[in-house]
Input
Amino acid sequence: MNCLVNSSCNDQYSNLMSHNRRDFIKIGAIGSAGLLSAWKMAGASGSLQGGATPSQSSLPNAPFRTATYCEVCFWKCAGWIYKNEEGKIQKIIGNDEDENCNGRLCPRGTGGVGMYYDTDRLKTPLIRVTGADGKQTFREASWDEALDVVAEKLQKIKQEHGAECTALFTHGSGGHYFGNLLKAFGSGNIAAPSYAQCRGPREVAFIATFGAGLDSPEPTDIRDTRCLVLIGSHLGENMHNGQVQEMSDAIDKGATIITVDPRFSTAASKSKFWLPIKPATDMALLLAWIHEIIYNDWYDKKYVEKYTSGFEQLKEHVKNFTPEWAHGITTIDPSVITETARAMRDASPAVIIHPGRHVTWYGDDTQRLRAVAILNALLGSWGRRGGFYLPEKIEVPEFPHPPFPKPAKTWRDAMGGKYALADLALASGVCDATIPNPEMGCNIRAWIVNGTNLIMTLPDEKKTIEAIKNLDLMVVVDTMPMEITGYADVVLPECTYLERWDDLRVVHGRKPNIALRMPATEPLYDTKPAYWIAKKLAEKMGLGDYFKWDKFEDVLEWQLKQIGSSLDEMKRIGVKVFPRESGPLYFEEDMPIEFGTNSGKIELYSTVIAAEGFDAMPVYTEHMTPPPGFFHLNYGRAPMHTFGRTSNNPNLTDLMDENTVWVNPKVAKEWSLKNGLAIYLENQDGIVTDFPVKVRITERIRFDSVYIVHGFGHNNKKLTRAHGKGVSDSQLISRVLIDPIMGGTGMRGNFVTFRIAKESEVKS
Amino acid sequence: MRYAMAIDTKKCVGCSDCVVACQTENNVPIGYCRDWIVEVTDGTYPQLEIELRSERCNHCDNSPCVRCCPTGASHYEKGGIVTVTHNKCIGCGACISSCPYDARYSHPEGYVDKCTFCIHRIGKGLKPACVAVCPTKCMYFGDLEDPNSEVSLVLKKRKHKTLIPEAGTKPQVYYLI
Output
């Protein structure tokens, strides 16, 4: 190893400039000539057949970088893939022009190389077969054979039961291709656990209040805020890159941070105020804050008068929700409640009551997020600098295809009229609709699962497995042998994001922008991009017209042309930022604004929620507390991991390879627990974790709670680094508190106790 | 010229991006690292404080590792950067034992390895990989002898400390507190 070897593949122009003349001539001889041609070469070589670049052996010493955007999490930061002199992928560096990352990827993005090099990857299509002894195994298959099996089974289900009896579960870039496949096939059951298991209640609450959801990345103007309020949201441990960066900027500028969490999170340690709240009582605190802001006249009167409706009703509604009332529920000192409300007022309108992201907690989540939205409205932060900016997105037209047929039924028909306010499909609902139930008119018989390990992403593992047992067909498309692959009839190995083209990244932001993903190398093993898999399946089912292109680059070239760019340009710059056309970033004085609500105003009193028969304004509901000997099961994220999808990544397991259970020292003393002791966790329903987990005794956790990082405790032995490391919180989440408004699955109503492991069971 | 680094413990979230960026930049094998994160929690619930910091070789002015190296593999480069010439290193490990910061490791290929402040990058005007990647921008790097370098400016403005100053090694990684 020699550090200087790497110098030829260093960042951007300085590296290019440092190259000697001979290198340029070499490149020039292959491409055209001159400095730019090095970039053009990078691009041109990527447009050869098969959607992959040629191997680097033909380009010795090339200062080669390939545009991409990250697929390790949903933030989708844009970056550059660099190779070493042997032509192997070495590192990924953020794209300076990208607003999501500002040239700085997070540890997962930097460690994305590990997804490519992970030798546990799925390598070839697999088909489930039953041997003469009745034992089921996977048999390696060719793509043609595997896709034939899928196409035939899907056609059979369509003939016998209707196309609407098929569903897609998805997370990530593949969702668009498989979604189009399913729509063309005649099904609208396209669900992502990122909705009903994560941010759904937030979207419904903000749409009900402001007539607009938050989407991703959330338009929080953290860089210019003077007060950031985090409620159970642990920025810094969840590496929502742009937000973490802006939080750091806000710290630099002296912003007040208020963190509400039973755990002393990293964010709490950066905060002026940490409110160590009793778990499950956040609503009481929010209502008391609303009370203080209204009854102390701390709200933005002009804003409230001009833009909102229902203020008088709200004022009456929160009359009795005093800090003293909330103290009895939350254990937070009344003077702290008042003082923090005043800090918000002092910063107003440059204040953000952060909506969080994973907000499916107790089943009254839409209402809790309504309280968050109302607070923001009272403080006038929506549409204001340092509050929430008005994001803009460029419209990129869909590549032409015939219109989709209208599905005969959708997942909604299986819900008996419930959850009308859900604006996206419920993954849990589709799962429920798979289990035969006489009340439901629709029983789903086939799942395509792409990039989401439903065993861990859906709560109540047992129920998920029961649903799967009712399926005639399950196809899993993934890069890794996640637990879900073990239940599949057919496994289709997808290549990683570093080896494929994908749709343009089109996200909203302060300015409209797009990012390109192109392959840095040929796919390893017998793996294929999702777009290719979807197209081939479509062709085999007579739906080829919906994917009428030869190479994926044709789609990109066509789309880019519509918006005044080109593939050549995008290969060179990776990210393109467009000027805003929708108007200013914030509301301006005397700007007439019509909000997308029934009243056209910001609805403090929600007419749409009232019309569905629910409380028009949030109320406090008491949630269960743990029985003696049990503790609230709190779970969260670690900055170097994305759910369970990275827990086998060699670079990232190197940083953290198992979770621990956080226990308060007083509790540890009572239970005679020692640091590092491996124990099992058992929940209120008698479910015991598959594996033991090591105890971490820390003052950072409340005495009535334990905490574990989500995404560990994998039980598939094919994940050689992750198998048996730590425990899975999903396994312990058997009590699911359904949000009656939109069907979100509240997961924080579970309690655990400790089971001391036998010495022989302790993993070394 | 005196290269130094300042790390803001008030901004660091301990995400370990500096660790993985160093690994991919410098081909550090999986299982080893040239930099790492330390978390120190003080107090009793709910009166708590956490200090998070990214640690690495301190590129000391008075480096015991350089003094004890029998072959001269460990040496000072321009700007006070301490590096190891791999093909001169016999892997005896004396430097590893002498370092009060435990900043060195034995590379599986037989030599001792550690942080170089990304000397191959700074020569080209780039920042060390850890500094360039940090999402919180909590790291500052530059020439202490230049009063206008970002590291000089931030050290002038902010209260700071070094690690184990009593060892007398004159470390050149500063922590803003």
Q: What stands out?
A: Chain B touches chain A through 46 residues (CB under 8 Å). Residues 109 and 124 of chain B are 28 Å apart (CA to CA). Chain B is about 20% helix and 25% strand. Residues 17-26 of chain B form the longest helix (10 residues).
